[in-house]
Amino acid sequence: MFHPEHPFNDIPLLPPQIILETHSVLKACVEANKELAKLKMAERLIPNQSVLINSIPLLESQASSAIENIVTTTDELFEHAEGHLSTVSSATKETLRYRQALYQGYLSLKTRPLSIATVCDICSTIREVDTQVRTLPGTTLMSESSRKKIYTPPEGEALLRQLLTNWQNYLHQNDGIDPLIKLAVQHYQFEAIHPFSDGNGRTGRIVNLLYLIDQGLLDTPILYLSGYIIDHKSQYYEKLLKVTSEGSWIEWVLYFLKAISATSKWTSEKILSIQTLIEESREFIKLKIPSMYSRDLVELLFIQPYVRIPNLIEMGIAKRDTASKYLKVLAEIGFLREIKRGRDKLFINHRFLNLLKQK
Length: 359
Known about the structure:
The protein is mostly helical.
């Protein structure tokens, strides 16, 4: 029996003991799969995948962190994305660790399946401290508005490991259930188990993207799923809690499928806009400074929208004096905007950043 102030030690194992594939769920599932398939096609339109991997996952990191009230700006994230962190805020550092955890999780799928070990590694990177399944009691979730306890997750390391093993097995069970329905189910279960003392929400939202890749539904972690969640935050927590308190699985699954559908569509449209901007940028630079134009240079300005002279040198585009000249001329013709940070000069692809910020 669920009580918000008592550990929910009798959390049911997966799979849920109800029929999830109702008419409304299957209808929503078809729509979500359609939009996700369009996104998978769209992500292949950008030849250099680094452009997408360096941009949309950073927006996902920002939104997922904001759900936990860790707030930073898009400009600050991109400025410090390469690791220039000496004067950066703690919120930005934490958000960039999320991006790092997401990318490391993505790379880990090439050598091992999604697992308990994966989530421990993800949470360790996010928190910047070795994180294992919690052993001590006292973890509770509070309402942001009333500060009352709304949920106490299960306690006891042995029980948590048993629940996580069941969760892990469910991920890889060949049961014929649509992967997007399973995605919604596993996300609830992971959040309900709440295996760590901190970082569970962010870890769980990274797992969502990794599961889509694991199932072959995406090639890279570029779905901006947390963008929907931050815009519908109260519903997110309300529907999660109603699964626990009332067994309202269908409501939760429908919410999650709508989130996948909406954010797949948003991300696809964003990628198409990025592709258009890259083509326009190529033509603009070719026209204005044909002697400086190269495909690699244009791609770099989208891989690193806050670009420094060493970036051009490292990419083999130009040596220092020539690289400095290239960036200065690009600023003179209005393509880049030059700013100073101490002794450093930064050149900003402001059109690209403005495009990323647009809702």
